[in-house]
Amino acid sequence: xxxxxxxxxxxxxxxxxxxxxxxxxxxxxxxxxxxxxxxxxxxxxxxxxxxxxxxxxxxxxxxxxxxxxxxxxxxxxxxxxxxxxxxxxxxxxxxxxxxxxxxxxxxxxxxxxxxxxxxxxxxxxxxxxxxxxxxxxxxxxxxxxxxxx
Length: 149
Ligand code: NI
What we know:
single chain; alpha+beta; 5-stranded antiparallel sheet; 3-stranded antiparallel sheet; 8 strands; 20% helix; binds nickel (II) ion
């Protein structure tokens, strides 16, 4: 396992749409393990592959309830609304108020290619949707209504 370099701010790799993962092989598993270690070292709750320079649809999340890995995630359902402070490991020290759905249901593949469903409310919904945005080439600053100290 290794800590990878996190791409920051105006790095154009963060603004590109990521490609579908087709091979569920050791290279993917190493990427996921590295992403998880990199996220934890940086004290984040989520990290998407483009943030470490890999243009693949892969995400890791841990909001303190265990590791979630999402490969080729699709948003199945969203509902409600929440407004709260959000940050991103690609924007160190920057926090802003972002409004998002309060509930999200996501379908994704695990590291072996098996499809599963994950649903979350509040912080987990926020993390799922924030990380999904990264795969589409979107960053949270596009949605900030007010920056906070
Ligand atoms: Ni982020």
